[in-house]
Amino acid sequence: MGLLGGNSVTMCRWSLVSSRAGSARSHFGSRAALRRGPSAARWTLAQFWRKDAVGTAGACHELGRGRAGGRRGGRDVRGRRHGLRGAAGVPRVRAQLRLAEVHRHEQREHRADLARVPHGPDGCRNCKDREERCPQFARAYQGLGCEDNPSYMIDVCAHSCNTCHLKDFAARCKHLVDMPESLEPGTINQTFQRMRSIKGLDVEILSEDPWIVKFPKFLTDEEIDFLKDANTRGPWEEASDTGALDEHGRRKKVFSSGRKTDVAWCNCQCQEHPVGKRLVSRISEILRVHPHYMESMQFLRYGKGMYYRAHHDAAAVRRRDDPGNVNKHRIYTFFMYLNDVTKGGGTRFPSLDLEIQPERGSAILWPSVHNHDPWEVDHRTRHEALEVEDGEKLSMNLWWHLGPHALAHYIGCSGAPIR
Ligand SMILES: O=C(O)CCC(=O)C(=O)O
Ligand SMILES: [Fe+2]
After folding, report:
1. Interface pTM (ipTM) of the complex?
2. In the predicted model, what is the mean pLDDT of the chain?
3. Which ligand is nearest to the CA of 393?
4. I need a labelling partner for 46 at 20 to 30 A (CA). Which of 171, 380, 391, 400 fits?
5. Which atom of ligand 1 is found nearest the CA of 383?
6. CA quadruple 68, 74, 76, 81: dihedral positive or negative?
7. Where are the beta strands (DSSP E) in 285-382?
8. Which ligand minimizes its atom distance to the CA of 397?
9. Among 99, 82, 86, CA closest to 274
10. What is the Cα–Cα distance from 306 to 79, expressed in whole angstroms?
11. 254 with 240: CB under 8 angstroms?
């Protein structure tokens, strides 16, 4: 009998943050959480993330209860939904093999982990919470507060969640380190060549070496309205870069003069909403990379005078054999424009002398790494957001990684700051 099966419930890692800010009830995930049935034993968190978190494709996950067959609770359903299907008539055998490989790996590793790792109160003798309200957080959502926001709770509230054995970054994250990479040498060229044959996909090739393509009418009006709706994202914040790792394996925020934008992250509303899911799924099928490997969608807002100086999206490539390198580096940027900009605000690739003007609903895509070796950064795809001279620019990043970023992020293994 699966621990988590049936009565699918959407939960959300952002809820804890929101509830602290007093807005839990307006939150999709939290509302759903409040409708839940009786609480499950909290020590099940350790089992939960091994079994089901691996099926999630971002911020939210589904917990199902009361039905046999826990595999339905996450991985399998999500794998199919976001799987590399569709795109009739397009070769996809390699992608499917890769997906099958990922799933086989998950099953093997998770079975082994479940047998090996002790969980329950005994693991918590010398372990303290780092936040005094942890017991209260853990009790929230009818006792499922730990499952609701694992990235934060596993670590900061380890005592209250009985996850002391998972506080250590290596213990928590090791099963993700050797998951198959999302790209093999040679895949990038095949993927871009294949795009021309995807039925119904309008694609303009702006550059072939390196690849930069534009999808002139990628987003539908429904998607744009949805993405521009304030309910689909967290609060706007001043953009920061990621700095050095702290003692908990999280990166510190660094503010730099090279960047003046506001950013916000996709919340449960956009991750779990059918429109958001369909969008991710469409992009995943174009790229032939599973959503396990993506970052949450990032919204960008530039007012007049705002910009992002030349940079590379895969700036921080770490060593191949670095045991802490779970999500690895960014391999693709899928960049979407949500509005027209009156003046300025183009995306410019200085080494290619190429500038793309924002157009409502259009998208551009480029790889950050070389076709022959996904571990080698392609510096020719450095780019910048030119200053907005008049009007406002609203756009979105969807970055794809060589390692399973979505899974890593979900359980605090991506190095992202604790939220
Ligand atoms: O806004 C743009 O045109 C590009 C933004 C960008 O490069 C980034 O957010 O990494
Ligand atoms: Fe960028």
Report:
1. 0.99
2. 74
3. 1
4. 400
5. 7
6. positive
7. 298-302, 307-311, 330-337, 343-344, 347-349, 354-356, 363-367
8. 1
9. 82
10. 39
11. yes
Whose tokens are 């309008």? That residue is 202
- Residue 139 CA to chain centroid, in angstroms? 27
Q: Ligand 1 centroid vs 253 CA: distance in angstroms?
A: 18
Q: What percent of the chain has pLDDT over 90?
A: 46
Measured distance CA(193)–CA(233) in Å, rounded? 34
Say which residue the tokens 């990922």 belong to: 102
Give me the pLDDT at residue 247, please: 65
Residue 143, judged by CB atoms within 10 A of its CB (0-12, 13-18, 19+), counts as middle
Nearest ligand 1 atom to alpha carbon 311: 7
Kindly give the distance from the C-alpha atom of residue 378 to the centroid of ligand 1, in angstroms, as a whole number: 17
Would you state the structure tokens that stand for residue 239, as one six-digit string?
């953009």
23 contacts: CB under 8 Å, gap ≥ 6:
none
Residue 402: closest CA among 337, 312, 316:
316
Do residues 62 and 73 lie in contact, with contact meaning Cβ atoms separated by under 8 Å? yes
Quickly count: other Cβ atoms within 10 Å of residue 418's Cβ: 17
**How much is the pTM?**
0.72
